Amino acid sequence: MGRGSSGKTSMRSIIFDNYEPIDTRRLCATNEIETTHFPFLGHMLFNIKDCGGQDTFFNDYLSHKRRHLFHNIDVFVYLFEAKNEDEEFAKDLKQFQSLLSAICKGSPLVNVFCLIHKMDLVKPDQREKLFKDRENELINISKPAKISCYMTSIWDESLYGVINKF
């Protein structure tokens, strides 16, 4: 999950549909929820829900779709766009907190991953500081839930390193 245009569908398409990063430019915004089933390691099945990040969908997720969407989840991934200004990041944090609360109620053993995404758009000498600042803020607002944070980009191998952590 994540706000609109954070890169959720691009990430899913690269990892599971073998898209090249350049090919993600032709993807459209996700409407509502797109569920995809992927066999994994021969004996597991990933059910991935790619949720549209527009505000109208977000409100619906927390009200009408809450029971269906947030129960029996093993892994929750939230994307934060790295280049978002403080005001946009604050909106992200508020949305993340609401979703995390709902998910922890319906799936108390959920593993939570926060991806600071599109790090390629941040100047190389500013990446580590930006990531650490965001990570510290996310850890603080997520308590008592434990989260793991990672830097990602569709333009390098960082996506695949994170997938191995799930």
Defining key terms:
6 helices; 39% helix; 166 residues; globular; alpha/beta; two-stranded antiparallel sheet
What would your notes on this structure say?
With 166 residues, this protein is α/β, with parallel strands linked by helices. The protein is 39% helix and 21% strand. It is built from six helices and five strands, in the order H-E-E-H-H-E-H-E-H-E-H. The two termini are 15 Å apart. The mean pLDDT is 82.
Shape: globular
What's the total helix number? 6
Report the β-strand fraction as a percent range: 15-25%
Helix content: 25-40%
Coarse structural class: alpha/beta
CA-CA gap between termini: 15 Å
Q: How many strands, what sense, and barrel or not for the largest sheet? A: 3 strands, parallel
Rg for CA atoms: 15 Å
Average pLDDT number: 82
Order of strands across the widest beta sheet?
A: 3-4-5
Which H/E pattern describes the elements? HEEHHEHEHEH
Ranges with pLDDT <50 over ≥5 residues?
A: none
Number of strands: 5
Topology of helices and strands:
Layout: H1 8-17, E1 33-40, E2 44-51, H2 55-62, H3 66-69, E3 75-81, H4 86-106, E4 111-117, H5 127-142, E5 147-151, H6 158-163
Parallel strand pairs: 3-4, 4-5
Antiparallel strand pairs: 1-2
